[in-house]
Amino acid sequence: MEASAMPHLGQAASAACTMATSFLAPVKTERQIYENSMLEDDPNANSVVPNSSEDRVKPRWGPNHKGAQELANLYSGGKRIQEVICFSVCIILMSLNILFILVRIKLENLSSIVLAAFCGIITADFISGFAHWAADTWGSIEIPIIGKNFLRPFREHHIDPTSITRHDFIETNGDTFAVTIPVLCKLSWDFFCLSEFEIQKKFFWICFWYQLTIFVALTNQIHKWSHTYFGLPSYVIWLQEYHIILPRRHHRVHHVAPHETYFCITTGWLNWPLEKLRFWYILEYIIERITGYKPRDDDMKWAQKRS
Ligand SMILES: [Zn+2]
Ligand SMILES: [Zn+2]
């Protein structure tokens, strides 16, 4: 090899190293996490040194944040009734559909059921990310019906992430169970109306849609576990440690202000690739250019209601 080629090789190697280092760098550094998110694994705040005297009087996060208290008080009796009804309807439809599926399971279609489960969990992770991103980034509490009933929990969650651990089963899971109802209705309709031949022909898709509804319905429970640092059952900790469901340290990345990445909360498997593709950033850029709305405007407004 000619001596003149050596410096070029050296430059290429160092450029490749720099690219690899920035590609593999953590999405948020330990310092960013420490300074811009609530330390949920330290409930007595032993390791927290408030940045200013204002932080001590007007907390940036947690149950004493004035904005969080105002949002918590907007959880209404009507909303509770809607959650109980949706949850009950969903459980009835899930039970009915699983009976229809179980009587048709054969040894030869087991592999397609497993494949349908894998596709279902990936799709659920993407849906969780998309819905979470849309609710965090756009709209406001002032929008009639949608604002107070469906966007409110997202705003509350950023300024008091631990509030979810104090919500009961219905408040935690009511909305994620509710969104599966149309799909479960369609599946039941197919079981009642299609011939046995037609059901067998689309059995993979039936299994896919059914398992998708299960993973979507469980999403906020999994999300709640990712905020629970004490008293989790050992099987949940095992699932988190092997990253089968959303791990706690992984979800911390989303909770670093201004909450602009790592929106997927079922397994979190898609968070890293979507971040590297700058997927959310590009979507926000396009929407801002078309509509003129600024991403996270309402979220920022609530974060600043500290007194
Ligand atoms: Zn969020
Ligand atoms: Zn969260």
Automatic annotation (TrEMBL):
Keyword Transmembrane helix in the entry? The reply is yes
Keywords tagged on the record: Membrane, Transmembrane, Transmembrane helix
Molecular function via GO: oxidoreductase activity
The residues covered by the Lipid desaturase domain are 121-298
* One Pfam family matching this protein: Lipid_desat
What is the protein name stated in its UniProt record?
Transmembrane protein 189
Query: Which compartment or compartments is the protein found in?
Result: Membrane
Instruction: Describe its membrane topology.
Output: Multi-pass membrane protein
Region entry Disordered: which residue ranges?
41-62
Which gene is this protein's source? LOC105367375
Q: Which residues cross the membrane?
A: 84-107, 113-135
Similarity remark = Belongs to the fatty acid desaturase CarF family.
Sorted alphabetically, the Gene Ontology cellular component annotations on this record are:
membrane
